[in-house]
Amino acid sequence: MKKYKQKIKYDSEGIIQQVQNYTDEYRVIMEYIDNSIDSAEDFFDPVTQEYSKEIIIEITITGGKKSEK
To answer: Cβ(2)–Cβ(54) under 8 Å?
Structure first.
């Protein structure tokens, strides 16, 4: 299985703007997952209702304190 990794970097201002659009901080993470699935549409076969490649989405949170994440 071939893996595709993509790091997403955002500046603090961009993150703050996105978070302000949602009342739940976890909704921002769900948006990243949703966008990742949307990006995998090229691998989806509507006839079989399956992806031609295994889709794995990993989220890694870095930083020790909540203010650093």
So the answer is: no
